[in-house]
Give the backbone structure.
Amino acid sequence: MKKKINTRMIGIAILAIIITMIGITSIFYGLFTDQVKRDLSVSAKLLKDTHYFESVNEDTEKIDLSTDMDELRVTWIASDGMVIYDNDTDALSLENHLDRPEIRDAFLYGEGESVRRSDTMNRNTFYYAILLDNETVLRVATDTESIWAVFVSAAPLALLIILGIMSICVVFSTVLTRQLIKPIETMGEHIEDAGFETPYKELEPFANTIRKQHMDILSAAKARQDFTANVSHELKTPLTAISGYAELLQGGMVSEDQKQHFYQEIIKNSDRLLALINDIIRLSELDRSEKEPQFSEFDLYDAVNEFMEGLKVGAAGKGISLEFTGEHCIIRGNKDMIRELTENLVQNGIRYNNPGGKVIVRVIKKDRPVLIVKDDGIGIPASDQERVFERFYRVDKSRSKATGGTGLGLAIVKHIVELHDAKILLDSAPGVGTTIEVVF
């Protein structure tokens, strides 16, 4: 970053110098040419006042301006365009001048001027012509360097100036860059300090975003670490139980009456282990899926009604009544994920209910489609309500394991809700029950 700033500052300085030099040279060259034209006009009028050119019958051999005006060419042209006198060349050798623009303008308007460029000589010749009282024209001319020649002659000095300014820019840009970057580096060192004041007000939103992302990364890393530890613990428990029961059976240390119980415990822990693995795999799929889920429009009421048929059997087996009511409303989502969400919420309502309890599922349309799952079970204390959607978090660990809960159901629900850009609301009280609303 420092190198880029230095390079660009030097580049800007060089560009500014070049543009300034071109601009100033053009301006002064324009002023110079205006001055040349004015000088020619004054010279022509002064020559007119010398009375050398009053009569066309004047002996031109007596007119000698070659020594007095080495840089000024004087030409006297008759009314027919023929050259009467020229201080630089034999007049008889010169062609007719009526086609020259400055001569033509002088005969028409009393005076005329023009500039002719010589690309080979890299010079400009300025002409000024004035009509005399005797209907002849007096023209004066002078040569100057072209603007390109001026640029070429100024190039060595310009290069020296550019080198000098580049040296100065290198020093100043290094110092300035260090002063600009130092506060940013300091901010980077204090990125975790929420109370650190951002050195530049313009960087405050950027700093807040970086700080938030940094905290999110740390939080995500801790969550992964906790998840790994929890997975290890959760898998270890059923595996230990299965291994222990199997060893006892293998060693013949179990009576015939107890074998059936041991077999049931092995099956129960195997089912629990399989459920844990399935939920872990599902969470990993939701976490790592790079493709957007396939969404379509469907009737939420019809979909949930279809899912309920399979859930009623499980509820009846545990003595829980399951009711479903609602109204038709269309949502855009992934039907398989909505099934998974509904099953997890209803199974939680069944699992954490009391014998003879009730789970009510409703689909209604307020401002938006809403799926409601309400139970009259054990409820959730206020202190635990913010954490129930965390992975492996259980309010009643002993009951959760006894009923086959993995502690991942609500974490999966939360993930699906986020993928559908929906909102989940929880209302619960111990001994009263729990109501969960998913607002699409």
Summary: The first helix runs from residue 2 to 48. The mean pLDDT is 81.
